[in-house]
Amino acid sequence: MSTAATGVRQNPAHFRAAADVAAGTSGIRISGVSKTYRSRDGDVPSLRPLDFHIDEGEFFVVVGPSGCGKSTLLKMISGLLPPSSGDILVDGERVTKPHGNVGIVFQNSLLLPWRNVLNNVLLPIDMKQLSREKYLPRAMALLKMVGLEGFEKKLPWQLSGGMQQRASICRALVHDPKIMLMDEPFGALDAMTRERMNVELQRIQRETGKTVLLITHSIPEAVFLADRVLVMTERPGAIAAIYEVPLGKNRSLEAMGDPVFTELVQRIRKHFFTQSALD
Ligand code: ADP
Ligand code: MG
Hints:
six-stranded mixed β-sheet; binds adenosine-5'-diphosphate; about 280 residues; 10 strands; alpha/beta; globular; binds magnesium ion; single chain
């Protein structure tokens, strides 16, 4: 991101941002965003310029072949990685650095090995220097929700991979961020826990109105959770299609038997018949 772009963010753009929100441009706006990694072995074009918008409070899911740039996209939205071109606006504010209004869950739990489960969950609170006392009940409730009650004092190595991942989901939620960015968060979980987490995540999202961007390689999971599913092409990734999921807001696992559900799963799967498999 150029200094000029950062500079623009301060004065006039501040008012433009307010106008954007008023004009209904809250949420996440991706405009002409591309990424080419520069490496010693040459350039790796990873994402073609993308344009789309995620509404505030929307559950937005991205599926695509391995290496098509899904994680790259998520890292750019979080501000961890600068785009090679284009603009990312969160609530009308240009993203130029990591920002506090997101909770991130990665493929690997990335828990700190020297902190116990509770202290890992409270990490964002400590980093933001918020009141531990205030957030402790929330942390405990989240741990209970994901079935980790009684494991608060355990160290990460004493938990299974699935339990570690559930702790990292609690950590992403503890400071009550407006946006949740999730990169294949349930990949390490067994099928039953994964379904339970899907239902729980849906409930949390509906109740809190959080904006969720989730990457998954499970097409049924994508359709079960999403308001809209973005299907990506192979690298360098582009948008193959965006589907609205015409199911109600509150879905039980029975929704997976709905003909509307199975039809959409099939339709999305067709995108990959001619491509290599998903992750
Ligand atoms: P996905 O999450 O869809 O599997 P990624 O976003 O991780 O894909 O990566 C997209 C492409 O960019 C891949 O081909 C990957 O090898 C490449 N890539 C990712 N990170 C780097 C990096 N730091 N340097 C060079 N190439 C990278
Ligand atoms: Mg990835």
